[in-house]
Amino acid sequence: MSASLRSSVRPLRPAALIRLLLGILIPLIVVGALGEDVLEKQRFAFESPLMLWLHAHATPALDRFATALAYIGGYQAIAPVSALLALALWRRSRAAALFFTVSVLGAALLNGVMKFAFHRPRPALWPRLMEEHGASFPSGHSMYSAAFVTALILLAWPTRWRWPALLLGSLFTLVVGWSRIDLGVHYPTDVLAGWLTGVAWVLGTYGLLRPTPRPGSSVQNETGGQEA
User: Fold this and answer.
1) Where are the domains of the chain?
2) Are 82 and 89 in contact (CB under 8 A)?
3) What is the mean pLDDT of each run of 10 residues along the chain (228 residues)?
């Protein structure tokens, strides 16, 4: 291998290797295994007991909260918020805006393709508080929220806002996933597949479209350019 070629090939850093293994490969393997069982119409023994247990412990206040999350964690809220954030990012960094847009919009498109491919019927264990149409696998709300939050965490990571973004974003994604099960519109494996696919999609996008802070930018100066 020539010296010029060796210099052009950058070795993967430990953070990139961890991101590839734990954030992309393992999640996709899990989603593939779940998807195979869904296509074969196999039942997951733990799902109905878990859903019925959650339903038995539901309260009117929790149901109202879950219903509100159906709007907050869905495209009705995430789409306009994402558009506003993308416009704000465009003024500061076109690379960051492109990464964020592809992350969120791409996750929504991918979810539609996966729902069409797997076409899993929605659960019908009790009368639902709200009706949802379309296929069940994977959960769109879980995938949208996971992609939205993961993209924000990656953008915030080189700044002092990394830990608030990580903690609050993770909590938001978890409660959105819980709400889909509480409302009886998704199986737990739908939610899990949505989370994992959303995260893997954004991390893969980050590997291709990683926004690099410009030298001397405020983002770089805050942390010394640490890698996410």
Assistant:
1) 47-212
2) no
3) 45 71 89 95 92 93 94 90 95 94 96 96 89 91 96 94 96 96 96 97 92 52 45
**pTM (2 d.p.):** 0.86
Residue with tokens 């939610």: 191
R_g of the chain, CA atoms, integer Å = 19
- In the chain, at which residue ranges do the beta strands (DSSP E only) sit? none
> DSSP states of 5-63 as a string?
HHHHSPPPPHHHHHIIIIIIIHHHHHHHHHHHHHHTTPPPTTHHHHHHHHHHT--HHHH
Find out whether 107 and 147 touch, Cβ atoms under 8 Å.
Answer: yes
pLDDT of res. 23: 83
Whole-number pLDDT of residue 8? 42
Determine the Cα–Cα distance for residues 135 and 187; give it in Å rounded to an integer.
11
As a whole number of angstroms, the distance between CA 189 and CA 46 comes to 10
Maximum CA extent, the chain: 69
Cis bond leading into 213, ω under 30°?
A: no
